[in-house]
Structure formats: structure tokens, C-alpha cells
Design a protein that fits this description.
This protein is an all-alpha fold and 214 residues long. The chain is built from nine helices and no strands.
Length: 214
């Protein structure tokens, strides 16, 4: 039997803090996936007992909220007054998608949790400030935000599934349907990962165009 391998611990400067724990949690999720995260495992990475984390977060859910906030704060909110709402919406959609490219294993956490922390709420406030200053009513601002967000979420989840198929050996993340499925064979090349950027932009344009038409 070979030597027992010990898990590497995070080298941290100074005492444990909410920020240190949040950063370590995101790094752990990026490496191992959301389902693998536990306070016990994260504590081991940080060199403490898992229960020590509860001195900084009342629950694991609170910790996950903090990770979601960290992801939200990575988004670049277009500045109000710079371009019309159409350009700002495109920038926001692209920034949202960029989060998934940087953190594919943490993206589901970001997409599925309602923002509840002060930093995340301030982020949302900046988005709606940008839209309201562009002349939208509150209802229209929410409609646009949800439409762009919902489109991006669906497109991103589909893209992540495609990238996962590539890891499993599928060429460009696209299936090879049975020959008798003629229509599917014609369209399947457009499902490949090499078409993701083109089709994402096309779909985003159509979402925005629907608001322009109204």
C-alpha cells in the first residue's frame, strides 16, 4: 500500500472571515461541483472543523447566498447614460453568459437562487437604475430583465450540456441521429459548440427586437 495522500489546504493570511470562506467555497465548487460541497469538506480545505464556519454563516444556505453574491458582483453592469437600453441589455446578456464560462460548475447556483444579500441586492439596484434612467417604466424594466435573464439561462444551460458532451467524447457536443431521422440530421450541425456564439447573439437580438417592436 502506498503512502496516504493528504488533501491540500488553502494557505490563508490572517483569521477566518466570511470573505475567505466564500472565496474558498467558490473555488471548491469550481473544482468539484456544487453537489460535492459540504461544510465538513470546506472546513478541511481551510484547516478548521466544519462547525467553525457557522461562526461566520448561520447555515450552509447563507454561505451559498454569499457565493451567489460573489458571482453577481463579477458581472459588469453597463453604466447608465452610455448607449441605449438595447446596447445595455446586450452587454448584460453577454456578461451573464461570461459568468457561466468562468464558473460552469457554479453557474446553476447563480441561476437558481434569488438574490438575498445586501451586495446582490445593490447589484440588482444598479441594473434597474440603468433601465429606469433609460426611460422605461418599472413594469417594462422588469419585463425586459426577466426576458433577457430567462433567455440567457436557457441558452447557457444548453451550452453547458454541449460542453459536457464534448468532454464525454461527442464531436462538438452534437449527437449523430439515426439516418432515418432526416430533419434532425439536417439541423444537428447547428447544435454544435462551434455555433454557440452565433446562435446566442441571434437569440439575444430577437429578445431585444421584440421589445423594440412593442
Amino acid at each position: 500500500m502506498g503512502p496516504v495522500k493528504r488533501k491540500a489546504k488553502v494557505k490563508r493570511e490572517g483569521p477566518l472571515s466570511p470573505q475567505v470562506i466564500t472565496d474558498a467555497a467558490l473555488a471548491y465548487i469550481d473544482a468539484h461541483g456544487l453537489d460535492a460541497l459540504s461544510t465538513r469538506k470546506l472546513g478541511a480545505v481551510l484547516g478548521v472543523e466544519g462547525m467553525a464556519l457557522y461562526k461566520h454563516f448561520p447555515s450552509k444556505e447563507a454561505l451559498l447566498d454569499s457565493v451567489a453574491e460573489k458571482l453577481a458582483l463579477e458581472l459588469e453592469v453597463p453604466l447608465a447614460g452610455k448607449g441605449g437600453w438595447q446596447d445595455r441589455s446586450r452587454q448584460m446578456g453577454r456578461a451573464y453568459r461570461a459568468i457561466a464560462r468562468r464558473h460552469p460548475k457554479a453557474y446553476l447556483l447563480f441561476a437558481m437562487r434569488r438574490f438575498a444579500t445586501p451586495g446582490a441586492l445593490a447589484f440588482l439596484d444598479r441594473i434597474f437604475t440603468m433601465l429606469l434612467e433609460g426611460g422605461m417604466t418599472p413594469r417594462k424594466a422588469v419585463e425586459l430583465y426577466r426576458s433577457v435573464l430567462h433567455y440567457c439561462t436557457g441558452a447557457i444551460l444548453d451550452e453547458l450540456a454541449g460542453f459536457e458532451m464534448v468532454k464525454r467524447g461527442a464531436p462538438k457536443g452534437a449527437l449523430t441521429p439515426p439516418a432515418q431521422l432526416g430533419a434532425l440530421n439536417k439541423v444537428m450541425p447547428w447544435f454544435g459548440t462551434d455555433r454557440f456564439d452565433e446562435l446566442f447573439e441571434a437569440g439575444l437580438d430577437r429578445v431585444i427586437a421584440s421589445f423594440e417592436a412593442r
